[in-house]
Specification:
Length: about 130
């Protein structure tokens, strides 16, 4: 399933109109700041934040060569399994300095306003170049 997600995302990202693609390119940084603003607002609303941590867990994974194809009427050969350490990313709650988080949010909102002001001429140029 994960193998299909990236190609599907690439196909969808190429689907926008030329105007949408131009505006998307001009506002890429603004979208990142918007995500950070949403995260900071969520942290302040909850009173704590999340930290992503990679832990290693032991799991059975397929290893060795694939079993040969089975003949008609025979049961399929079982794949060879081995215990292996597999990385797993989890979200762990962490305490935050809410004052610092509020300052960070105010700074992000100011940055977002500055980015919107700077992107306005680019957006207007995109609309003029690619009218819909």
């Amino acid at each position: 399933m994960k193998r299909l997600a990236l190609p599907a995302l690439m196909v969808l990202s190429a689907c926008g109109t030329p105007q949408e693609q131009c505006i998307s390119a001009a506002t890429r940084d603004m979208r990142m700041v918007d995500r950070l603003i949403a995260e900071a607002e969520g942290n302040l609303a909850r009173g704590y934040g999340y930290q992503e941590v990679t832990v290693w867990t032991t799991r059975w994974v397929r290893c060795g060569p694939l079993p040969p194809p089975h003949a008609e009427g025979e049961p399929p050969a079982k794949p060879q399994l081995c215990l292996d350490e597999v990385p797993e990313t989890i979200r762990k709650p962490v305490a935050l300095d809410l004052g610092a988080e509020a300052q960070k949010l105010a700074g992000l909102k100011a940055k977002r306003a500055a980015q919107a002001k700077a992107a306005a001429p680019q957006i207007a140029a995109c609309k003029a170049e690619y009218p819909e």
